## 1
Amino acid sequence: MPQALFTSNSRMVKFRRAAAVLCFSLILMLVVGVTQKVFERKYSYSKYYDFYQQEEDFDVLFLGTSHVLNAVYPMELWRDYGIVSYNMANHSENICTNYWQLRNALQFTTPKVVVIDLYAVDGDSKVNEQYLHNFTDAMPFSMLKVEMVQDLLAPEKRMEYLFNLSLYHSRWEELGREDMKPGTGLEKGAELREEVTVNVPPVLIPKEEYDPTDRLNKQYLQKIIDLCKARNIEIVLMYIPYTMPEGDQQVANWGYAAAEKNGIPYLNFVYEDLAINYATDCADEAHHLNASGAKKVTAYLGDYLSTHYDVEDHRAQTAYAYWHEDYEEYRQMKQDWLDRQQNAWSYLMLLNDRDYQTKLYATKTSYIYQDQQMKELIGNIDVYGKVEHLAPTDDSSDEILNDNTVRIEVYTADESTLISSRLLVRSEENMYEMQDIVMQ
C-alpha cells in the first residue's frame, strides 16, 4: 500500500474515532442534562422561570433574604405603577451570594435600579448552603457559575452546585407529575405569606447609634455598589421592618453610614412612615411580613421608585402586554388563596387588597367589635381594600346572625362579582370558626 494512501486511511480512522467520541460525549451530556432536569427539585425553576424567559429588560431588581422574598410583590408594582420588576431574593441569602446573583442577572437584563436589603450585612459567612440550591439550580451553566462556586464554596462542595445530579439522583422514588411538567411561579419571584402573628413594635434607638464592625458581607455590599455604579445602575439600600432588638437596630443604622459614604439613598423601613401595624402585618414572631405588611412595603417602594427614578409605566406598551395576562393569573391565584383560608385572622388580613371590596354584616353589639385583634384586622382592610359595615337585613340569609356571628361577602373591586362568602362564628372568647356560605 502506498505510504500516502496508508497515511490518509490512518487519518480517516482517527477522524472517525474522534467524531464517535465527540458524538458519544454530546449524547451523554444531553442524557445527563435531561436526567438532571427531571430529578432536580423544581423550586428554583418555578421561582426564576419568568426571569430567564423574559426578553425585555426589567426596570428594578430586588435582592436580599426571605425578608425581601416575603415583603416585595412585583405584580402589585405592575398593577399600581406599571413597574416591571423581579424579586430575586431567597431564604437566608448572604450579601456575598447577592453579589453573584446580581452578576448572573446582569447577563440577562440591564435594570435601571437595584434595591438591596441589609438584613444579612452583619456576618462573615459567604453562603448558607441549606438554601443555595434555590438560586443555583436554575442558574445556567457558564464560566461565571464556575467562578461563583469557587468563591463561595469549599472545593469538595463545588461539583454539587455545578452538576446537581449528584445531589438529586436519589429522588426517583418521589418523582411526580410536576417533575415532568413543572409549574411556574406567578409572583415574579416573591412568596406570599398568609399567617398572622401579633408582634410588639420595636423600641427604637437613635439613628446615630450603629455597629461599625467590619464584616465580610459589608465588603461584598461595597462590591455590589461599585458594580452598579460601573454599569450606570442606580442602587437603593433598604431594611425591611420587624420587631428588632437593639443589636439589630445598630446593624440597620450602619446603613446610613454606608449610604452617605457612597452617595446613595437608604430606606430604613423601621423608621419610615409605612403605617405598619404589628398586630396585623406580621407572619411570624419577630421577622417576616405577611401579605398585608408586604403590600405596605411594596406600595411605598412603588411610589418612591416612580418618583425618584426614570422608571417607566409600561402598562400601555404593547411589548409588555403579556404582563397584563400574568397579572390576571396572579389575581386568580390570590382569589384561590383566599378561598382556601380556614383561619379567621388570615382571611381578614388578606382582604386588605385593592382587588377586593368587602361587605361585613354584623349586629351593632357584635363581639367582633369588642375583640381588639378583630377590630385591628377589620380596620386594616381599609388601608388598600374597602370594607362596608352593614346591619343584618330581614332576608333569610341573616336569620343566623347574632352577636356571636358575622357574615362576610367579598366582591371584586368594581363590585361586579361575588367571589367569597363566609360566616364567622365565635366559639369562645377571641376564637372564631369559619363556615362557607353557598354563593347564589
## 2
Amino acid sequence: MASFLTKALGTVVVVGAIGAAGFWFVTRPQPLPETAFADLGAPDLKNGERLFWAGGCISCHAGKGAGDAGDLTLGGGEPLTTAFGTFHAPNISPDEKAGIGSWSLADFGNAMLRGVDDEGHHLYPAFPYGSYARMTPKDVNDLWGYLKTLPKSDKPSPEHELSFPYNIRMAVGGWKFLYFNDKPRVELASADEKVRRGQYLVEGPGHCGECHTPRDGMGGFLKGQWLAGAPNPEGKGKIPNITPGGEIGSWSEADIAGYLETGMTPDFDSVGGSMVEVQKNMARLPAEDREAIAAYLKAVPAVK
C-alpha cells in the first residue's frame, strides 16, 4: 500500500512538473531577436512624427493639454482606472534614468511589437501593443528616432495599482496566449491601396479598436464585434459603433475625414469626450491618411 501511494504521489509530482513547465513555455515572454531590427538604417523622422500623431502617444504619456501648449514632454499622463485596477502611463521621454533613453531599438521594438519590456518582462495590455504588433519594423524605427528628439523628463513612473490576481505579470502570458496576435482584425474584400493604408493605420498605430471594440471578462476583444462600440474604459458613457452599421453609418468618407480634421460632424455638432484628444492628434496627420482611415471604416463589416 505504501509503495502504491509513493508511486501515485510521484506520478502526481511528475505530471504537475510537466504541466508547470508547459504553462511556463506557453506563457513566457517571447521577444523578437535583435536581428529583427538590424539594418533598418537611419530613421525617417518625418514619418516618425506622423506615426507619433497617428498613435496618439501624447494623449497617454503627457500631461493634459500638453499638445495644445506645444509641450511634447512625455513624462507620464493621467491615471487610467479600469475594472482590473489603475494603470499609470509611464515616462517614455528620452531621459536615461526616468524614461526610456537607455533602451536600444530592439528594446523599444519588443515593447511595441511583443509587449515585452527592456528587462524581458510582460507589459500589461493597457499599453496597446495588441494593436501596435501590426506595425512594420521600419515604422517602429522611425517612431523611435522621433521620440529621441523630444524633451527629457526626470519624473519617475508610478507603479500600477492592481489587486490579485491582476498584479501577477506571468498571468499576462496567459492573456497573450488567448488573445495576442499580429493578424488582420478583419478580412477585407477590397484590395484598394487607400483602404489597405487605412487598415494599417486603424488596426496598427491608431489602435482605434482598443476603445471601439467590446471585450469579454478577461479583456479580450469579442469575436465578430470589431469596432462595434463598447463601454467607456474610463467608466462613463459608451464609445460608439463606428462600423457602417453603427452611429456613423450614414456618413460618407468625406464626412469621416472632415470630422477627423475639424472635429465637426455632418450635422454641425462638435467632437466630445475622450475623442477630443484623438481628433486633435488625427488633425495633425496628412489629409491622405485621414482619407485612408475613412475609406477603411466604410469597408469594414457592418455590425448592428
## 3
Amino acid sequence: MVESCFLGIDVGTSGVKAILIDAAGDVVAAAVTPLLMATPHPGWAEQDPEAWWQASVASIRTVLAAKPRAVVAAIGISGQMHSSVFLDAHGEVIRPALLWCDGRTTAECREITERVGGESRMRDLASNPALEGFTLPKVLWLRNREPDAFARLATVLLPKDYIRYRLTRTLATEPSDASATLMYDTAHLRWSEEILLAVGLPRSLVPDVGGSADVLGHVTLEAATVTGLTMGTPVVGGGADNACGAAGVGAITAGEAVTSWGTSGTVLAATHEPRVDPTVRAHTFCHVVPGTWYLMGVVLSAGGAFAWYRDQLARDLVGSGEANERLNAEAATISPGADGVTFLPYLQGERTPHRDASARGAFVGLSLAHSRAHLTRAVVEGVCFALRDSVAILQELGMSPKQMLLTGGGAKSAFVRRLQSEVFGLPVCTVNREEGPAYGAALLAAVGAGAFPDLAAAVDATLSRSALETPDAAAHEAYEEPYLRFKASYHAAHASPDSMG
C-alpha cells in the first residue's frame, strides 16, 4: 500500500540527517551520513558544500530504500546557521564554506560596526551585534583576503538553502536563516538596504525570502535521478537548525523555552515581538512561525566539548558503543562542583555572553587528587554553567522560563537531564521525538503540503511531553559556588590574538 510521507533533512556540522514521517508524525525511517570539518588554523572552521550535497543524497537514498512504498509529499530542510556558501554566476561553489563556529573575522566585525555607525545602530538594524560567526563578516573576509574569489561572487547562500538549490535549482531563503546573516532587518522582515549599502554590497548578493512552510521550489529531473525522489516534489522554505529544532519539540509560542545540545549548545525562548537584549549578549532571530521571534544564547562547544574530551582523554572507551554512558556513570559518582575542578568549554571561542572568538578551553583547579571521573563531571558541569549564563540573561530580560524543554544530546542521559535541572534551578522535560531540527523540517513540509493548517496544529497532533523532572532546592543551591567559580575563571580562557591565524 502506498504511504504518503514527509521528508525532513538537517544539514548539521557533524552529519546530514534525513527522516521520513508519516501522516501521524511517526518517524518511519531515518539516516545520518557523517561529515568532517576542516580546521586549517586555530579558530578556523570550513566544510565543502559538495560534501553536504553528497551526504544529503546518501541519507535521502537510505531512508527511501528503508520505506520503498513511501511517496514523499513534500520536503523540508534545516541546517546550520550563519555558514557561508559562496556561488558564482553559474551556481558553482567558489571555495569551502566558512562555518558558524569560524572565528577568523574579528577585523571584519569591527569594519561592519564602524561602517554601519556603531554597535547601537547595528542592534537597531539587525537586532544583533557583528560577531565572527555571522554570514556578513565572512563575505567581507572574502573581499579583504581572497579578492580573486570575491570577484567571482554572485550569490551567498546558507547551508540548507544550498541543498534546496541542488534539489530545485531555486535560489531562495526564509526569515529564520536570513535573520542570522547580519544583512536582514529582523524586526521588519526584510533585507536591510542600509546595512548592505554601508558595507558596499549589492542586494543581488542575497536571495529572495519566502515563508518557512511555503513551497519555494520543486525537485528537478537531475536531482530526482541522483536521490531517488520524484521529480516535481515540492520543497518548502524550512528553517535554521535552532528554529526547526524548537519547532520539533513544540517551542513555538511565547513563554516556551528549550535547551539543545548539538555540537554547540543553545538556550532559546520564543516571543511574539522582536525583543532585543540591550547589551546584545543574546541573539534575536525570526522563528519558523509567522509573527514569532526568539531570543537565543549560544555556547559554541557543548556536545562538541564533550566529544572532544571523550575522544582525546577517554580513548580506552571510544568505539565501545557506550562511551558516553560509561563516562556519565563515572561522573555521577563525584559530588557537585567536581571537588574544585572547573572546565571552561570555550574550545572554539565563545558567543554568549562573552562574544569572544579568542577564548579557549581550560581545566582549572586540578590536583593530584583528581581522577578522570572528576574531569568528566567538570566537563558536563562546565557546559551546563555556560548554558546557565544564557538562562540568566532571559531572567534579566523578564523572560524567565517556568520550565525548560530539553533536546539533543543533553536530553538523552538521565544524569545530564538532572544536572541541567539542578544547575538551572528549573523543572525540565523532554518530548516524544528525538530527531531535532530534521523533525521540525518535516513538520514544515507537512504544513506546506496541506496535511495540517499550520505549525501549531502539526505540533499538537504529533508531540507529547514527559513528566516534569523538578530539581531539589538544596541541589540547586549546591551549584551556586561552583557556578560563581566558573564565571570567575573566564580570565583563564584566553589565547593570544596571534593564535587565531
## 4
Amino acid sequence: MGSFEVITMGRIGVDLYPEQIGATLAEVRTFAKSLGGSATNVAVAATRLGRRAAVITKVGNDGFGVYVRRALAEFGVDTRWVGTDQALPTPLVFCEIFPPDRFPVYFYREPKAPDMNIALDDLDLEAIAAAAVFWTTGTGLSDEPSRTATLAALDARRQRDFTIHDLDHRHHLWRDGDDPRRWAREATRRATVVVGNTDELEMATATRDPRVGAAALLELGAKLAIVKRGHEGVYARTASAEVTVPPVEIDVLNGLGAGDAFGGALCHGLLSGWPLRRTLEVANAAGAIVASRLACADAMPTMGEIESVLARKVAT
C-alpha cells in the first residue's frame, strides 16, 4: 500500500444513539449502534472521500471490540494499529437528541478507556512521519500514557505540512487539577494545522474571539488555524490570509459527528491542493450533512453528496 494518506490517532468506541428523538435516556426504548470516536470518525470520513486511511487506537477484549474492528474494515479503514487492552472494556457512548441544538453526550469510559493506554511502544513512528496527513486530538492529551505518545507522534512529524491537531476538548474526561490549556498549547507548537470550535478555542487561548484566538494559535507555531463557529460558519487564518465561510443551512437532526465529517473533508481538501476557501466550503457541507443524520461514522458523506449540497446552496 505504501504510505497512508491519512493516519488518525485517538478515541474509538461504540455509539448507542436513541431512535426516539426528543426523549430522555429514561424514556428511550431502542438505540441504533454504530462506530464512534472522534479520531476514528475522521478516518472513516476521509476513507468515504476516497483516501487511504488508518487509525491508531485501542479497544477492549470483548464483543464491542470485535464489532468496531469489523466496522472499520467494512468502511475501508486499515486496522493494523488497532490494539487490544486485555483489562479494559471497549467504551460506549450514549446521547439524547433534542434538535436543533441540544445533544447531551454520556461517555462510559471508566475506569479508563483503552485508547488512553496507547503508549510510545505502540507507535510506528516511521509510518506516522511518512503519512501525508497525521491527525491527533485533545482527548488523547487528557491522560497518560496517551499524552506522551501523542506528543511523541507529533514530534516525529517534524512540522510536515499537514500535521493536524484537533483541540477536541471534553472537560469531563480530564482529572481535577489537570491543565488542558497547557497541553493544547504543547500540541499546537508541534502541529501545522489546528482545528477547534469556539469553546475549544477559549480553552486553548483564553478568548472566544475567532480572529484573536486564531492569531494566538499561529503565534504558538501553527501555520493554519480553523475555528468552527456552528451557525456562524467557519473562520480560518494563516500568516497572510483570513477566510470566512458562511454556514450551510440544513435541518439538523443530530449535531454529533458533524465536526468529524468536517475533519475528514478538511484532510481531503488539503491533500487535493484546493484553495483554502474551497476546502472549508466542502468541509462545512460535509459537517452539515452529518448533522442532518442520526449516526456519525455511518453518516459520513461521499463527495457526490457534498457537491450536491454545495450546488443547492449556489442555486439559492
